[in-house]
Amino acid sequence: MYVIAFANPKGGTGKTTSALLLAEQIALAGASVTILDCDPNQNLVEWGHKRKIAGRKTPFNILPRPDESEVIEIIDGLDGKTDYVIIDLEGTASQVVTFALSRADLAVIPLEPNSVEAPHAAKAVQLVNRTGKMLNRNIPYTLLLNRANAAFQTSEERELRVETTDSHVKVLPVSLIRRAAYTKIFGEASLLDELRSSLGKRAGEREIEQIDKAILNAREVAQKLMDLLEQKEAA
Ligand SMILES: Nc1ncnc2c1ncn2[C@@H]1O[C@H](COP(=O)(O)OP(=O)(O)O)[C@@H](O)[C@H]1O
Ligand SMILES: [Mg+2]
Asked: What is 2-234's CATH number, 3.30.420.10, 3.50.50.60, 3.40.50.2300, 3.40.50.300?
């Protein structure tokens, strides 16, 4: 079982979005996935709830935020029952975050590549490293550049990639692009894969193309994250 935790003390960086996209892509790849929604906002629980009410099946399980005292027990209890546990964390440092990180095989820190979000992501890296030190183990992490420009790499993204390489901060080589489809899945409580059919027959070629690009990008990001986990296991 692999445990992937999405962490960043700043809200709105894309933790919930990337957690959901990853869950769908891993499920599509044929593995079993459980989302542990540790954010008090319960966005993913709500997303799943809306689907249940509408009679739509979801290809993964979603568990609600456990009590702080139960986080570790719940994660450990999933071993053998699911291939991947994806944990969506709240936008503040808390005991729940520390407990979840203590079990993480990979911490993913999403951020928009700009000077406002970079310092927050640096704090998230420190938190992961500090938690690892406390436990006397290395907690692998990667930054995930989110809301990247679709058409070209901005100078801010380029600079961030150079700076992080120089300072040996790990960044996923593929960025998650800013796409309307990634917001729409929340509004419509849908999977990315369902957006195409929900467009209807009158959809233009461009609309379909945008969704296909979003699917492709989500798949690439998920593949890179899965590769990281496998490399770490092999090492
Ligand atoms: N790559 C993206 N493209 C378009 N919208 C995005 C993207 N990533 C996040 N968003 C939107 O930004 C907002 C904040 O993202 P969210 O995943 O909820 O952040 P967090 O969980 O870190 O607070 C949401 O409205 C979400 O739909
Ligand atoms: Mg969130």
From this structure: 3.40.50.300
